[in-house]
Write a structure and sequence with these properties.
five-stranded mixed barrel; N Utilization Substance Protein A, Chain:P, domain 4; alpha/beta; four-stranded mixed β-sheet; 15 helices; GMP Synthetase, Chain A, domain 3; single chain; OB fold (Dihydrolipoamide Acetyltransferase, E2P)
Length: 459
């Protein structure tokens, strides 16, 4: 047992980096606990020492030198001590070796347990240090099991957990399947290190691009910002440090091979690669891709961008349930307000109508309010030829050219004068009311009615 202990301690020191003295101290503490458990009251004031060279252990009991012994487990007579130490005096503390012969088996089992425990702790500590430095990195694991919606991945020497909030929506996993995940957190637990990984973190997308695009890994192309809604769509803004390298083209790859590999890993998640631009307006316009943008007005104080798009591009710019606009806002860091060209014209027309001064012939909001307060309606304007004045109102007629035929109704009304016009309107209105009430048209036609009214007016 002694030689086995020495070899085991040396192996731990060499392979796991654990100090030999630390291991021996742990063994001594464990032996002391076992000794007290087995020998009860006789184990008071006991110290155990393991020889670092031979591996042999010794049990020492500490006693106080007295003239007359009252407690044999804690005291020793002065005369007995002076037999091997003539200089001893009353009150001194001496150590007596009391190593029991039948303690060997217990000591061996205890030492073995300590070594195994220290080995496990050393393994856990090494794994913890290794993965603690890999936080923010990507790992590949094999699905070991699925319990309570948690997916456990075998990473070799340790197991990682993929909890439900970190799983891509509607993504399913099978036992034995290999999965790439992003290390979110590494914490030390009672049973060893606990590693939490994610499939939804934006960092996963960044690391995948680093793996697939050499220009990003080498630092030629830089990923500026990422906006992601896992499982649906992501936007990534990239810039090139080399004017001869197209950042977007490098990420897309020949025939789209590079970005397609990432899309496949993320189970079909759509990825928009946007060229980063220091100009906020241009960056916001690019961020709304694939929609085409007409104009962008930015407000630096409120960090708001008003974007104008063609009417047929409005739904594309906003996206399903606002997804495209939401991702663009996350990507650029700006609050984005999207309007169509028609909406913009309506807003500008409303603003022009309200702000138009009274002397220009328009009506201000204050003027309308004053007219309503006085019981008057808004002033009526004279319609121009061909202009529609109100809903369903006919345009004013141009005077007929010389020699041009004039319709019968018009000729009759013109001949009758203003009073005749009012009479015609009254009769026609009465006729229409009768038709609506009875469902039958009156016997006289509109032409006959106008002629009768004209004759009456002439008489």
């Amino acid at each position: 047992m002694n030689l086995e202990l020495i070899r085991a301690v040396q192996q731990l020191e060499e392979e796991k980096g654990i100090s030999k003295d630390v291991i021996f101290e742990d063994v001594e503490a464990a032996l002391l606990t076992a000794y007290k458990k087995n020998f009860g009251g006789a184990a008071q004031n006991v110290r155990i020492e393991v020889d670092r060279g031979s591996g042999e252990y010794h049990v020492y009991q500490i006693r106080t030198v007295v003239e007359a012994v009252d407690d044999p487990t804690a005291q020793i007579a002065l005369g007995e001590v002076q037999q091997y130490d003539p200089t001893a005096a009353v009150g001194d503390m001496v150590e007596l070796e009391v190593t029991p012969r039948d303690f060997g088996r217990i000591a061996a089992q205890t030492a073995k347990q300590v070594l195994v425990q220290r080995l496990r702790e050393a393994e856990r500590e090494l794994v913890y240090k290794e993965f603690r430095d890999r936080e923010g990195d990507i790992v590949t694991g094999q699905v070991q099991r699925i319990e309570r919606k948690n997916v456990y991945l075998d990473l070799g020497r340790i197991e990682a957990v993929l909890p439900p909030p970190e799983q891509i929506p509607r993504e399913s996993h099978r036992q034995g399947e290999r999965v790439k995940a992003y290390v979110v957190e590494v914490r030390q637990g009672t049973r060893g290190p606990q590693i939490v990984v994610s499939r939804t973190h934006p960092g996963l997308l960044k690391r995948l691009f680093e793996l697939e695009v050499p220009e990003i890994y080498e630092g030629i192309v830089e990923i500026k910002t990422i906006a992601r809604e896992a499982g649906a769509r992501s936007k990534i803004a990239v810039a090139s440090r080399d004017k001869n390298v197209d950042a977007v083209g490098a990420c897309v790859g020949p025939k789209g091979s590079r970005v397609q590999a990432i899309v496949d890993e993320l189970r079909g998640e759509k990825i928009d690669i946007i060229p980063w631009n220091p100009d906020a307006a241009l960056f916001v316009a690019a961020g709304l891709s694939p929609a085409k943008v007409v104009r962008v007005d930015v407000n630096e104080e409120t960090k708001t961008a008003t974007v104008i798009v063609p009417d047929h591009q409005l739904s594309l710019a906003i996206g399903r349930e606002g997804q495209n606009a939401r991702l663009a806002a996350k990507l650029t860091g700006w609050r984005i307000d999207i309007k169509s060209e028609t909406q913009l014209k309506e807003l500008e027309a409303q603003k022009l109508f309200v702000d138009l001064p009274p002397e220009s012939g328009g009506v201000t909001a204050a003027g309308e309010a004053a007219s309503e307060a006085a019981g008057e309606g808004p002033p009526e304007s004279i319609p121009a030829p061909g202009e529609v004045v109100g809903e369903g109102a006919p345009a004013a007629q141009e005077p007929a050219a010389e020699g041009e035929a004039v319709p019968a109704e018009t000729e009759a009304v013109v001949a009758a004068g203003s009073g005749e016009s009012e009479a015609v309107a009254t009769v026609l209105a009465a006729a229409e009311q009768v038709e609506e009430t009875t469902g039958e048209a009156p016997e006289a036609s509109a032409d006959e009615t106008r002629e009768e009214v004209s004759e009456g007016a002439a008489g």
